[in-house]
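User: Please predict the structure of the protein below. I'd like the answer in structure-token form so I can feed it into my own downstream comparison script.

Assistant: Understood. Taking the following sequence of 197 residues as input:
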Amino acid sequence: MIMRLTPIVFIALCTAVGSLTGCEKPSHNPNILYSENHEDPIKQLETETVIADRDFAYKQTFYVPIYSDIYVDEDNTKVLLSATLSIRNTSLIDSLYVTKIDYYNTKGDFVRPYLDKSIELPPMGTLNYIVEKMDDTGGSGANFVVNIEADKDDTPPMIEAIMVGSFSNKGLAFKTDAVPIPNPSLKPAQSTNTSSN
């Protein structure tokens, strides 16, 4: 005998099964949805270390160009792009600290901060953070401003942004590299070594 379920019974059954399995509605934040532990990667790396009280030998601000959309042709005048900010610690032995990730739009207006606390990136560790395709608040000239600090100045980080999009059954992907920029408020600790004559 074939059992036929009415829509109401079917919905009730699905709800009951969901309750038994402990399933929850997945987050729409791709940074949580696609992370290994389904947790915000920034929150996982947050540190309780008081960065302001430490004298770091390396302090640098980086400008990272982002494209939320791009012109392709007269038929696709605005193609939305997803962007991934990638910050990589290239040191084999030392952590580095990310103290700021701020997002700006095409006009240069501050959009939002991404950090509540500083984060510690372990040796050879990488932070990847996604700006969703439908988030076009940045526009074609968006950018991140990132502050990096570290105990040693011999292993600078690698910072990139990777943009991905599609149109008319075609895909496109490209990357941009971070550019170090001066920041008077971020000065490295002065060396205490003095030479005697």
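That's the full token string. The chain has three helices and twelve strands.
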